[in-house]
Amino acid sequence: MSEPLLLEFPQGVSDAIQYERSLWAHSAEEDAAFYSVSGIAMASAQPGTPIKVQEDANLAQNYTLPPNTAVSRFIYVSESLSGERRPVSGYVLWPYMPRLDANGGNQVVAWAHGTSGTTVSTAPSKFKNLWNHFIAPYQLVLQGYVVVATDYAGLGVGKDQNNQSIAHDFFASSSVATDVVYSVQAAKKAFPQLSESFVVLGHSQGGGATWGVAQKHAVSKIPGYLGAIAISPATSVLDNPEPFGSLIAATMAPGIAALYPEFDYNEFFTPDGLELFNKIVKLDCASSTTIPILLTLAGDLLKPDWASNEWLLKYDNLTANGGRKISGPLLVIQGDNDPMVNYNNTVKKLGAALDLSPTSHVQLFRLPGTSHTPAVTGSQRIWMDWIADRFAGVQLKPFDKNANFTSVVTPARNLSSYVPELNWFVGAATEAYQTP
Question: Which intervals hold domain Serine aminopeptidase S33 (predicted)?
Answer without folding.
Answer: 138-372
